[in-house]
Amino acid sequence: MATTAQSAASLAAKQNHETVIEIQDVHKYYELGETRVHALRGVSVSIARAEFVAIMGSSGSGKSTFMNILGCLDKPSAGRYLLEGVEVSKLTKKELATIRNHKIGFVFQGFNLLSRTTALENVELPTLYARINKSEGEKRSREALALVGLADRMEHFPSQLSGGQQQRVAIARALVNRPSILLADEPTGNLDSRTSVEIMDIFQKLNDEGLTIVLVTHEPDIANFAKRSIQFRDGKIRRDEAVQNRPRAAEVIKTLPTLED
Amino acid sequence: MDLLAIIRIAMRALSRNKMRSILTMLGIIIGVGAVIAMLGVGQGARQTMQEQIQAMGSNMLFVGAGTVTRSGMHMGWGSTKSLVYDDMLAILRECPAAHAAAPGSSSNGQVVFGNDNWATRLNGTEPQYFDIRNWPFQEGSGFTQDDVIMAANVAAIGETVRKNLFGATDPIGQTLRINNLPFRVTGVLAPKGTSAAMSDDQDDIILIPLTTLQKKVTGQPWLRWIMVSAISREASYAAQKQITLLLRDRHHIRPGADDDFFVRNLADMADVADEAGRVMTLLLASIASVSLIVGGIGIMNIMLVSVTERTREIGLRMAIGATEANVQQQFLIEAVVLSLMGGTIGILFGLGASYVITQTLGWPVLVSPIVIVIAVLFSMAVGVFFGFYPARKAAQLDPIEALRYE
């Protein structure tokens, strides 16, 4: 499963339609006053459908910038980014918003749920921007919440939910528009270790069903639940390898002591 | 994304902060309420003025003796002797727009009854005067044409005169002395009140037959004025022209020379009064609309706070697919919903205030439906105007920065 920059390029040349993300020699600069910050210095990655990739790296390594570009929140200064064959770096802001809505599901460290808004309404939010009619949006939202095990918490407000439950609402929200990829930025950063493993369990199960997941984390334990790990340093990919001895989160939970809810 | 969904989102956002939304609306409520109440008061005053002028007879014309300048000296209005009884007959005969006319002359009268005395205006005229001026009697009746022919000592008195001279006594049939001549009171005129257009007390008056005044009081055979009623309100302008031409001809005034009389048209005066009322209404409304602008600034302020406070929410909405336009619409609609709800409550508030003004101060208040429609549109415009900048600010946030905002 290990792919080097060369093999990624050859994959693109073959126009493999199973390639979801195709990034070629992407650079990103920021102008900060007089100085120019070079956040990404020539990154090339290819991610296929149903992959589960962990992005690792210390702060300042460029992994956040990479995630922003991957999530179509930012555009590369140079290089190409093809998402399902679409050249994203050429799109307008409005088209990018549509791509984010249809093809990308975001999960954040801080959950980012709307307060004083029920779990169900939070999950419905992306359907409002997707021109999906209300009843269909609600049906999908109920399904997504059931999928993450919150069928009995739909009318609860975020303040009435635990951290793990809030993150599961956020995952349901990310899934409701049936995206091509799920981008999770430190999804376990605010959670205790048991809840973190529970979240990884959900990710593994979703991945088993064919969802492509890209996960940013700085915890090696969490990264191990992925199938492939990419290490960033100084704006470049330092290591890109398959995860050996990948544990099943469902098994790990059994070994952990039960915490009081 | 359809408008209904955006409105739903906006309503949800507003209901999350009920207290703040209500306080923000308060500015608009007071603003719209004040505008409605002030316009109501202004319109009511205008209406009252129109009614008063109508009561004087809206198709009435007043022909007055003019001024003469003798040896370079201005002798004052009413100093000419050229307006005569035959002029009135000529007007009735030759002006098709004139319907009826009453001749008149005036003097000041010192009136005595018992121990009380009162100085008032003494008008001599003929019985048709009461019809032309549309002036009924509250008691008794006026004098007759026979009284005029006989130059009888009879008088019709106004309400102010009755109050000051007779008090509780029934004046009908009583004899009072005007400039030391005895007069029998035949009737008391219904009170007309102080005219807003004329700004004097119309009830402070005594009316006697013209002949009596001319022969026994002033000794002047000419007229001071002629009251003419036109066949309709519209015809009063035509009547004015016809009378002017006729009298210039009868008085042998050369082209280019000034008239020795004047014709005043009450429709004209009604227009002047109406204009004054309109200006007053506008003035009141513009003072009130200042508070509406203050309310709008309140909305802008709260929307700006709201945008800052909800930076992360905006970032999230953009991350999950809201376009700049979506975000801008959401905040704009929040502002418009605030101002529209405020406007609606403000209308009720304004109607309530108008009712209270009518009840407590006794001012007539008139709130027309058009004013309400304008108030709704205006408060909506306030929302759009003051909501635009905050909404624009929200839409231009960078989603990455917004998501990272603490």
Order of helices and strands of chain B: HHEEEHEEHEHEHEEEHEHEHHHHH
Q: What is the β-strand count of chain A?
A: 10
Biggest beta-sheet profile of chain B: 6 strands, mixed, barrel
Strand order of the largest sheet of chain A: 6-7-8-3-9-10
Q: What is the distance, rounded to the nearest whole angstrom, between the alpha carbons of the first and last residues of chain B?
A: 29 Å
Strand content of chain A: 25-35%
Pick out the low-confidence regions of chain A: 1-17
List the total number of helices of chain B. Answer: 13
Seen as an oligomer or otherwise, the chain set is heterodimer
- State the largest interface: A-B, 29 and 23 residues
Percent in helix of chain B: 55-70%
- The chain-level mean pLDDT of chain A equals 88
Averaged pLDDT of chain B: 86
Verbal overview:
The complex is a heterodimer of chains A (261) and B (406). Chain A is an alpha/beta fold. Chain A has one domain (49-76, 92-255): 3-Layer(aba) Sandwich (Rossmann fold), CATH 3.40.50. Chain A is 35% helix and 26% strand. Chain A has helices spanning 5-13, 63-70, 93-103, 119-128, 134-147, 163-175, 193-208, 220-223, 249-255, and strands spanning 19-32, 35-48, 52-56, 78-83, 86-87, 104-107, 181-185, 212-216, 228-233, 236-242. Chain A has a six-stranded mixed β-sheet with strand order 6-7-8-3-9-10. Chain A has a four-stranded antiparallel β-sheet with strand order 2-1-4-5, sandwiched between helices. In chain A, helix 4 (119-128) crosses helix 5. The model of chain A is unreliable at 1-17 (pLDDT under 50). With 406 residues, chain B is of the alpha+beta class. Chain B folds into two domains: 3-52 and 272-404, no CATH class; 81-259, no CATH class. Helices cover 56% and strands 18% of the residues of chain B. Chain B has 13 helices and twelve strands. In chain B, the strands form two sheets. Chain B has a six-stranded mixed β-barrel, surrounded by four helices. Chain B has a two-stranded antiparallel ribbon with strand order 2-3. In chain B, a hairpin with a 2-residue loop joins strand 8 (175-178) and strand 9 (181-189). In chain B, helix 2 packs across helix 11, helix 9 crosses helix 11 (324-361) and helix 11 (324-361) runs antiparallel to helix 12 (369-395). The longest helix of chain B is centred in the last third of the chain and has 44 residues, at 266-309. The radius of gyration of chain B is 33 Å and the shape is elongated. The two termini of chain B are 29 Å apart. The interface between A and B is medium-sized, with 29 and 23 residues.
